[in-house]
C-alpha cells in the first residue's frame, strides 16, 4: 500500500497493525472490574477507546492516559521543552472530548535518567500553560529518576473528565447522511515522530538549520519559533477543549448535544481513527483540510506515499465531528469563528471504511 522504495512507519520501527493486535491481546487478558454495575467506579462499556468511563452516581467520570512519544527525542536533542507539556495535556484532554466529556483535571509523570532544574522548570511552565488553555486543574504529578531504565526525559499524563450519566458520545448514533466537520491541526501534533526522525536523518538536515520550506499556514502559527526546522516539528499539539466543551455543555450552544453523533481525535492511525467511532457506515472525505507544509516536505524527502501519510499523520486535521445534517452548517460557521479553517469535509454514507475521494485512498481497519 506504499510506493516502492518509499519510507514507511513500520520501516521506521512502528507497525500500527502489530500495535493494534498487541493492544487487543492486552485487553482480552484484562480481568473484569470488581466494581459492580450501579455502584460508583463500575465500568461503563464504550466502543472506540478514546477514553474510559466509570459510574459516579448521577454522572460518569472519564479517564484518558497518554504520553508525548518520540517527539520528545527531538525536544531532548534541542533542550527545548516549552511545548511538550502542551502536547501531553492535549493528547489526553482531546481524547476525553471524544466520549463527550468535559476535562476537569490532569496529573503528569516525568521519568529522567538524572534530574535537571532547567528542564523541569520549563516543563512545569508548559504544563501550567496547557492546563490553562484546557481549563483543567493540574492536580499533581510524579517525577522518577531512573538511571539504567530511561536514557532521556520522558513525559506522560492522565486526564479526568465528567459527563452526565448515559450521555456518552460513542459513535453508535452515526448514520448515513450525517456530516463530517474537520478542525485544523497545528501541525504534526504528537504522532508519527519515529517516521519524522527517519525522514530528517535521510534529508541530511540539522534541526537547527533554517526551515527548508515556508512554515506559514492559515490554520496555525509556529509557537516558540527559533526560525529553524526543529521549531516547526516541535509546534505544540492543538487543544480543542475550547470550543468543543461549549458546544457540548453550554445552554447557549447552537445545537443540542444529541445532534453530535461522534467525535474523533485524529492521532496515530490517521484517518483510520474514524473507524473507532462506527464500522457499519462509510466515512466519505470529499473536501479535506489543507495540510501544513511540513507534511509535503516529509512526503517528498521520504518518498512517503499518500496512503501512508494519511495512515500515520493527521494531515492538517486534528479533530472530526460527525453531526446531524440539520445542524451542520450552523456548527461549521460557529466553529470556524473560533478555530479558523474549520469546515465541512464530507459525509457519512452506506458501506464501510474511510474513503478519501480526492486521492482515492481507502482505509478499512484501525
Your description of this structure?
The chain folds into two domains: 35-164, 60s Ribosomal Protein L30, Chain: A (2-Layer Sandwich), CATH 3.30.1330; 179-363, PurM-like C-terminal domain (Phosphoribosyl-aminoimidazole Synthetase, Chain A, domain 2, Alpha-Beta Complex). 29% of the residues lie in helices and 23% in strands. It is built from ten helices and 13 strands. The chain has helices at residues 16-29, 71-78, 84-97, 117-134, 193-203, 229-233, 241-249, 293-302, 306-312, 328-338; strands spanning 43-44, 52-56, 59-67, 102-112, 137-145, 154-164, 179-184, 260-265, 282-285, 317-323, 343-349, 353-356, 361-363. The strands form two sheets. It has a seven-stranded mixed β-sheet with strand order 8-10-7-11-9-12-13, sandwiched between helices. Helix 3 runs parallel beside helix 4. It starts with 15 loop residues before the first helix and ends with a strand. The model has no long low-confidence stretch (mean pLDDT 93).
CATH class of the largest domain: Alpha Beta
Q: Helicity, in percent?
A: 25-40%
Structural class: alpha+beta
Characterize the main sheet: 7 strands, mixed
Q: How far do the termini sit from each other?
A: 15 Å
Q: Radius of gyration in whole Å, from Cα?
A: 20 Å
**Could you report the average pLDDT, rounded to the nearest whole number?**
93
Low-confidence stretches: none
Shape designation: globular
Count all strands and give the number: 13
In CATH, the homologous superfamily of the largest domain goes by the name PurM-like C-terminal domain
Secondary-structure arrangement, i.e. CATH architecture of the largest domain: Alpha-Beta Complex
The fraction of residues in strands falls at 15-25%
By CATH, the topology of the largest domain is Phosphoribosyl-aminoimidazole Synthetase, Chain A, domain 2
Strand line-up of the largest beta sheet: 8-10-7-11-9-12-13
Note the total helix count: 10
Order of helices and strands: HEEEHHEHEEEHHHEEHHEHEEE
| Overall structural domain count | 2
Amino acid at each position: 500500500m506504499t510506493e516502492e522504495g518509499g519510507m514507511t512507519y513500520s520501516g521506521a520501527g512502528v507497525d500500527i497493525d502489530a500495535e493494534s493486535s498487541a493492544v487487543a491481546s492486552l485487553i482480552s487478558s484484562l480481568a473484569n472490574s470488581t466494581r459492580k454495575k450501579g455502584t460508583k467506579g463500575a465500568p461503563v462499556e464504550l466502543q472506540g477507546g478514546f477514553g474510559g468511563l466509570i459510574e459516579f452516581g448521577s454522572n460518569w467520570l472519564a479517564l484518558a492516559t497518554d504520553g508525548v512519544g518520540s517527539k520528545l527525542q527531538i525536544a531532548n536533542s534541542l533542550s527545548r521543552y516549552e511545548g511538550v507539556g502542551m502536547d501531553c495535556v492535549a493528547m489526553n484532554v482531546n481524547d476525553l472530548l471524544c466520549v463527550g466529556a468535559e476535562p476537569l483535571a490532569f496529573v503528569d509523570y516525568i521519568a529522567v535518567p538524572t534530574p535537571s532544574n532547567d528542564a523541569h522548570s520549563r516543563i512545569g511552565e508548559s504544563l501550567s500553560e496547557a492546563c490553562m488553555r484546557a481549563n483543567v486543574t493540574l492536580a499533581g504529578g510524579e517525577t522518577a529518576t531512573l538511571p539504567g531504565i530511561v536514557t532521556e526525559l520522558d513525559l506522560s499524563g492522565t486526564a479526568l473528565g465528567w459527563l452526565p450519566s448515559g450521555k456518552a458520545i460513542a459513535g453508535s448514533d452515526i448514520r448515513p447522511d450525517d456530516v463530517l466537520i474537520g478542525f485544523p491541526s497545528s501541525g504534526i501534533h504528537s504522532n508519527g515522530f519515529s517516521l519524522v526522525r527517519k525522514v530528517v536523518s535521510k534529508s541530511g538536515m540539522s534541526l537547527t538549520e533554517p526551515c527548508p520550506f515556508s512554515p506559514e499556514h492559515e490554520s496555525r502559527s509556529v509557537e516558540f519559533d527559533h526560525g529553524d526546522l526543529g521549531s516547526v516539528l516541535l509546534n505544540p499539539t492543538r487543544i480543542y477543549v475550547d470550543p468543543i466543551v461549549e458546544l457540548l455543555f453550554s445552554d447557549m450552544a447552537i445545537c443540542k448535544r444529541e445532534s453530535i453523533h461522534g467525535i474523533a481525535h485524529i492521532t496515530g492511525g490517521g484517518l483510520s481513527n474514524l473507524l473507532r467511532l462506527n464500522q457499519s457506515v462509510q466515512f466519505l472525505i470529499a473536501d479535506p483540510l489543507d495540510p501544513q507544509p511540513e507534511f509535503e516536505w516529509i512526503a517528498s524527502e521520504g518518498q512517503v506515499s499518500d496512503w501512508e501519510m494519511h495512515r500515520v499523520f493527521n494531515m492538517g486535521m486534528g479533530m472530526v465531528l460527525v453531526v446531524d445534517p440539520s445542524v451542520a452548517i450552523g456548527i461549521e460557521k460557529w466553529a470556524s469563528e473560533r478555530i479558523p479553517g474549520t469546515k465541512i469535509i464530507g459525509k457519512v454514507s452506506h458501506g464501510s471504511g474511510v474513503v478519501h475521494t480526492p486521492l482515492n485512498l481507502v482505509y478499512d481497519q484501525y
